[in-house]
Amino acid sequence: MRTATQSALRHVHPRNTPFSFGSCCLFSRTATYLHNRPLSSASASPFSQQHLDDSDDQQHFHSHYHLKDADIQRIKLVASRAQTPLSIAQCIKLGESLSTKSLLKNLIFLNRELPVRFSKRILELDNLPEELKKTEPFMNLAQNYSSSFQALQEYSDNSRLWFLSPNTYHREEVELDDNEGMQTAVQKEYADLLQTVTNRHKQDVVFMAHGISLFKQYQQNRSRPSDEIQRFLNSFNRGRLGIRIMVGHHLALQSQLFHPTQPSFTSSLPTSKGPSPAMMGLAVSTTNSKRVGIIEPQCDIEALINNATQSAQFVFFQHYNTVFPPNVHIQHSKDIGGQRVRFPVVPALLHHILFELLKNSMRATAEFHGLDKMSYPDIEVQLSSDANGGLQIQIKDHGGGMPQEKLAHPFDYMFTTGSNTVCIDFPSILNAVEKKPQTSATSENLPLCGFGFGLATSKLYARLFGGDLTIQSIPGSGTEANIQLCRLEDQIEQVKD
């Protein structure tokens, strides 16, 4: 008897075949099943062994991930496939024509794409310097990515989704069973798997920061990690973010499809009682406008700024106890006028950027003018449009600016606008993050300053879909940050293989 997965998921596209959310053009006539094939089986792959590296390279995997030879070969084989960049237009199209069948097609895409992305992250981790790779946090990180890869790959294997004739070029629309009960069962089964994977990676950022901190101690507190480490962190976090967006969007759409009257379990709305800056959550609802998964086509930007302000003020209160944080004043440029600004964004990503910048500005302003003050100069936020239909958000403070020696590398990982002597209690942070429900975010558990990932990840988030983040600072005066946002409908994820 066929399982629900076997019945509903009959076909899969071959490697390096373009795949979009809105359509499902698969090489379906020559697809078939491979039965009872465990991940560690020597015959696990239908592809040639010539793609695999020699056994010496495999020793790296043995020493750090405790994997079998066949698992190592599978990771390298899957990682040899190209990633498929996300198209925001297709993400929106999928949500606008949401149905059990269209969501199942997206599941088929994820079933192929996620193992590719996880395998590439594993190889990136394995290429790190030995001194960093051997730290306990990075070994934990590598083990988590290996576990997620194996779980996703085993699901794909058990679903018998292997394409066996790569020389066939005929394409046709995939035919799915009309049995919605089976399709729904497959959706729920896969959602459980994705939720398990998501929970496993709640601590990724903390593991990375802790590992880099230990590595710096090993290097006798070298001022900044090497360019090699910076490149790794940029690439790894870009890939990690792409995974989060894919998974978060699918889970949010599934929640909207099967529970339309309930908020998505990936959403989190910051309030004055406590922030959810969404380092892990993937939707921050700011209005009653219709969301499409994790995307808000008509996001109320001022409401999002206010939410980020509340989040930053909460962390400020936690750090200084009784000090009143600076206020945030929102202004419009003449080209916008007095109208409410609405713009298509992934709210969680913009919220993270705003939260980090406002948090830094609040701390700098309070410390520059004195912690005994009852009021401070406002932090000014100005909204303006550009000639290409994009949106610019300028955040300006009067916090004394950055010291000259820090202006050269403000977007480096482990850069901090605070004191370099700040002691981070990583075990406590890890424990707090682990105990938090998935609907909560990680940022509220991080220190006000000194963690060293805020500005770097903010720039990465801004650039992921064609935007940017720049910072100008005048020592003794203040700092001005400029967020450039492009219209999401025209953007494709920036990925590098």
What can you see in these coordinates?
The chain is of the alpha+beta class and 497 residues long. The chain has two domains: 4-253, Butyryl-CoA Dehydrogenase, subunit A, domain 3; 263-490, Histidine kinase-like ATPase, C-terminal domain (Heat Shock Protein 90), CATH 3.30.565.10. It has 14 helices and eleven strands. It has helices at 4-8, 55-65, 69-79, 88-96, 100-126, 130-133, 136-158, 180-200, 204-218, 227-258, 301-320, 347-369, 426-435, 454-464; strands at 25-26, 31-32, 162-163, 172-173, 296-300, 328-332, 342-345, 379-385, 391-396, 468-474, 478-485. The strands form four sheets. It has a five-stranded mixed β-sheet with strand order 6-8-9-11-10. The chain has a two-stranded antiparallel ribbon with strand order 1-4. Strands 2-3 form a two-stranded antiparallel ribbon. Helix 3 crosses helix 5 (100-126), helix 7 (136-158) packs antiparallel against helix 9 and helix 10 (227-258) packs across helix 14. The two termini are 40 Å apart. Residues 1-56, 160-175, 263-288 and 437-444 have low confidence and may be disordered.
Secondary structure blueprint with pairings:
Elements: H1 4-8, E1 25-26, E2 31-32, H2 55-65, H3 69-79, H4 88-96, H5 100-126, H6 130-133, H7 136-158, E3 162-163, E4 172-173, H8 180-200, H9 204-218, H10 227-258, E5 296-300, H11 301-320, E6 328-332, E7 342-345, H12 347-369, E8 379-385, E9 391-396, H13 426-435, H14 454-464, E10 468-474, E11 478-485
Parallel strand pairs: 6-8
Antiparallel strand pairs: 1-4, 2-3, 5-7, 8-9, 9-11, 10-11
